[in-house]
């Protein structure tokens, strides 16, 4: 257990020292917790409202009609949410294809020039690729 605690403390310290990443991670965590708690409170308030409706209509519609009225109220809340979810999750039409390049010879000239430079400076190109790979590997580790 002590190793687990020390690992958590070191991970927390590393997150704190990460600068902008640590700040963004803390902000996202706080935001996620606030949304989760607000969701629970919202669900509880809907439950309280339905219970209050049940108690309100119980003397007028009886013990069988009150749950039906409460169910109708919940259904009237669910239907707009289902319509919104359907519209959000509906497939969008694919974007139009990109327009063709006006001059097809330009990319061919660029490729020919890049090939010529690669042939003349193989060592420099390989060193640049090695440094780019090492930098990309370090960026993914953070």
Please give a structural write-up.
- The protein is mostly helical.
- Helix content is 86%, strand content 0%.
- The protein has helices at 2-17, 20-89, 105-120, 122-141.
- Helix 1 (2-17) packs across helix 2 (20-89).
Q: What structural class do you assign from the helix and strand content? A: mainly alpha
Strand content: under 5%
Mean pLDDT: 77
Task: Give unreliable regions as ranges.
Answer: none
What can be said about the biggest beta sheet?
A: none
Number of strands: 0
Query: What's the overall geometry?
Result: elongated
Radius of gyration over all CA atoms, rounded: 30 Å
Terminus-to-terminus distance = 26 Å
Task: Describe the structure using short key phrases.
single chain; 142 residues; mainly alpha; 4 helices
């Amino acid at each position: 257990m002590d190793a687990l605690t020390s690992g958590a403390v070191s991970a927390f310290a590393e997150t704190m020292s990460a600068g902008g990443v640590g700040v963004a991670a803390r902000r996202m965590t706080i935001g996620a917790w606030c949304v989760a708690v607000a969701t629970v409170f919202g669900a509880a308030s809907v439950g309280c409202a339905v219970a209050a409706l049940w108690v309100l209509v119980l003397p007028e519609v009886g013990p069988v009609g009150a749950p039906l009225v409460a169910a109708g109220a919940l259904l009237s809340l669910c239907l707009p949410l289902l319509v919104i979810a359907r519209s959000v999750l509906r497939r969008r039409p694919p974007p139009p294809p990109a327009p063709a390049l006006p001059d097809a010879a330009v990319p061919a000239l660029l490729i020919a020039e890049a090939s010529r430079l690669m042939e003349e400076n193989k060592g420099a190109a390989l060193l640049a690729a090695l440094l780019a790979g090492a930098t990309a590997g370090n960026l993914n580790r953070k």
